[in-house]
UniProtKB/TrEMBL annotation:
Protein family: Belongs to the D-isomer specific 2-hydroxyacid dehydrogenase family.
Keywords, alphabetical: NAD, Oxidoreductase
Domain D-isomer specific 2-hydroxyacid dehydrogenase NAD-binding residues, every copy: 112-297
Name assigned to this protein: D-2-hydroxyacid dehydrogenase
Transmembrane parts of this sequence: none
SUPFAM superfamilies on file: Formate/glycerate dehydrogenase catalytic domain-like (SSF52283), NAD(P)-binding Rossmann-fold domains (SSF51735)
Boundaries of every D-isomer specific 2-hydroxyacid dehydrogenase catalytic domain copy: 4-328
Pfam families: 2-Hacid_dh (PF00389), 2-Hacid_dh_C (PF02826)
Keyword NAD recorded: yes
Amino acid sequence: MKILLLSVRTDERAAIEKWGDRHPDVDLTTAEWELHSDTVDQVAGYDGLVIQQRSQIEPDVYPRLHELGIKQITTRTAGYDVIDLQAAADNDIVISNVPAYSPRSVAELALTHTLRLIRKQELVDQRVREQDFRWTGLQGSEIHSLTIGIIGAGRIGGTSARLFHALNAKVIAYDIKPNHELDDVLTFLPFEEVLQQADVICLHVDLNETSKALIDAKALELMKPTAYLVNECRGPVVDTTALLAALKEKRLAGAALDTMVGEETFFNFDLRGQELPNQDLIALREYNNVIITPHVGFYTNIAVQNMVDISLDDTLAIITGETSEHTVG
């Protein structure tokens, strides 16, 4: 069996080698390039394909993969919006993802972002760098006095809820399919009520047609002017133009963003000394009540190992005629 892993980062190689040591009968090849029209022919001769990329796979790639005998694509991520599921199905290609590589990794960043926001840590850090040690404007809030609103109480959102509950915050949540196993740590409410009541809104939804621009101007108007927004899921879930307007008009206390629309042009790039390629990023960086991190919610030792292990386990299962519980489409 020959499996090709694409877009492999240096930090993934140790995890890949560990998996390979446990499966000596599988030939693993790693590459740094993405799957596109101009690279698809390099997939020839492989039985399985594992990807992790931020740009769309072109329509002509799928029939070519079919011609090359590729029967599956597994992505080492939870998101799979770079893949056209219908085009894959039309060419007999099974798609799978890694829906829960480490719920704690993202949930813990949501907690970290929340604590930094409610203690005004960005402003504190800025002042200290400037040798301004005054307290004025730095009064924070204690988390047990706040209501945390979780939008999307699945694996990650549920884990976030348990972390916040452990710190004695009141937790409310909205989910299209409420998981009542979480009733001991949160209360499910309608979407609008969560927005209206929460002091912090944490986003943990999948990206799909119903969640694009879920947090738009109307949603932001429902939030308290003293509330914070934390986005740990996908950039398009938030209407950035509406968010910037709310920040400018001080209808929102602040935001923490681990993901943004257009992030593929700047996150995980060294842009020191260069002009930034995204006007929204430039605008958001002007606010000392906005935290921006470069989509690192997933980026922990445990999560990276799980992403590699689960994706390779699923690839091997599918190409050997078995099934995976992580297929999508």
